[in-house]
Write a structure and sequence with these properties.
149 residues; 7% strand; globular; Protein PBDC1 homolog; cytoplasm
């Protein structure tokens, strides 16, 4: 019996498409929630408090709202950024699908767009969006929808 080795596995186009569809569906669902409920009143998981506290401990720069308002993909995916995020993510491996791919907006004051979203793992999405929500940075979305109605 052989074991699966992710490092040498082929990337099958159909599997990649299924992951992409799931990531887009998750982004659309989240955006729909933000349109209806101010982010500051939204709870994403039963682990929100622990995720938020650990994020601020591991990434003290996120104590400043401006530093979570805009995320640098280059910094996040640099060698040192990857190492720091990997350590953070592994602390939440008990959360279902914590490492599943998802889309993350790079700027909290922008929509999901091809240029304005990056691929991240779910726990990174949770951490950054929980932080943004707690700082009220996503509240504009529901206000804009109500104002235009």
């Amino acid at each position: 019996m052989s074991t699966f080795d992710a490092e040498t596995a082929d990337n099958l186009e159909d599997i990649e498409k299924q992951f992409a569809v799931k990531a887009v569906t998750q982004a659309e669902t989240y955006w729909g929630l933000l349109e209806k409920i101010p982010g500051s009143k939204l709870k994403l998981t039963k682990h929100d408090d622990a995720i938020f506290e650990q994020l601020l401990e591991d990434f003290p720069e996120f104590k400043e709202p401006a530093n979570v308002a805009e995320i640098s993909e280059a910094a996040m995916k640099s060698v040192s950024g990857k190492a720091k995020w990997r350590t953070f993510c592994e602390k939440f491996k008990d959360i279902e699908d914590y490492n599943f791919g998802t889309l993350l907006r790079t700027k909290c004051d922008d929509f999901y767009t091809q240029e304005g979203a990056i691929f991240a793992v779910r726990i990174q999405f949770y951490a950054i969006e929980i932080c943004r929500n707690r700082y009220g940075l996503n509240d504009w979305i529901s206000r804009n929808i109500r104002a235009s109605a």
